[in-house]
Amino acid sequence: MAQQIIILVSSVLAIVAAFIGSGAFFGTPIQEAAGGFLNSDSTLIAPGTGAFRIWSVIYTGMLAYAIWQALPAQRNDARQARIGWWVAASLILNAIWIGVVQADLLWLSLPVIAALLAVLCRIFVILRRTTPKNKVEIVVTDGAIGLYLGWVIIATAANATAILVATGFDGFGIAPEFWSSLVLGVAAIIGIALAFWGGGRIAPALSLSWGVAWVAVARFTDEPYSPATGVAAIVAVVLIVVATVVARIRHDRTHRARARASAAAR
Q1: Which GO terms describe its cellular component (predicted)?
Q2: How far, in Å, CA of 66 to CA of 20, rounded?
Q3: What is the rounded CA–CA span in Å between residue 225 and residue 247?
C-alpha cells in the first residue's frame, strides 16, 4: 500500500514540476533556463519545439498508470511490486531534473537524466521478462513507460550535446555534422536493439522516432540549419520503424507457433 501511495504522489510531483518547467504560471521555461542551451536552436541534436508536446502524453500516461496501480486489484500484483519503486524513482528524478535546470545547473542535469534513463531501462527489462495480465495493463503500464523510455533516450542525447556546446567543445576540428550524425546513429542502434530485444514494442519506438523526427524538422526549418543532420535523423527514424515492424512480425509469429505447439501437446 505504501508503494502505491508513493507512486501516486510522485506522479503528482512530476506534473507540478512540469508546470514549473513550462513557465505557465511561474518558473522559467526549460528552453530559456540554463543559459538557453536546451532550446531547439541550441545544438544540432536539439529537437524542434513541437517535439516537447509529447510530455503532455507521457505525463497523462504516467498519471493514468499511477491511478491504476493504486487500485485495490493491483495491491498484491507481483509485476507491479517489482517495478513500483523504480517507477517512483523515475518520476522523482524527472522532477529533480527540472529543478536542476531551473537552478541553471546545466552540468548537473546530465547525471540526473542519465540516472533517469538507467532507471527506465531497468523497468523495461522487468516488463519484458514478465507478462501483463490483461490489455489494460499493456496500455497503462507497458505503453506509458515505453513512451517515457523512448523519449528520454533522445532527450539524454540532446542534453549531453547541450553540455558539450556549453563547455565550448569544438569537435576536435571535425565537422559538427559528423558528430550529430554519429549521435543519431547511436540513437538508431539503441532503437533497433530495443525493437528486437523487446519483441517489437511500439511505445518506445514511437516516442524515440517522434523525438528524432523533430530533430530533422528543426535542422531543415530552424537554426542551426543542417540538411546533413536532418537527413541523418530521417534515416535513423526509418531504421527504427523498420526494425520495430520486423521485430513485431517475428515476435507474433513465434508467439503463434508456441501457442500451436502448446495446443498440440495437450
Answers
A1: membrane
A2: 21
A3: 34
Whether 31 and 40 have beta carbons less than 8 Å apart is answered as yes
Q: CA nearest 184: which of 121, 230, 220, 118?
A: 230
Where in the chain are the domains? 2-265
Q: From 51, 57, 55, 61, select the one nearest 210 (Cα to Cα).
A: 51
Cell of 253: 509469429
Distance CA 184, CA 238 (A): 12
**Residue 188: which of 128, 225, 236 has the closest Cα?**
236
CA distance 92 to 225: 35
- Whole-prediction pTM value? 0.93
Express each pLDDT in 7-29 by its tens digit.
999 999 999 988 887 766 667 77
What cell does 219 get? 535542422
Given a contact cutoff of 8 angstroms between Cβ atoms, the answer to whether 43 and 165 are in contact is yes
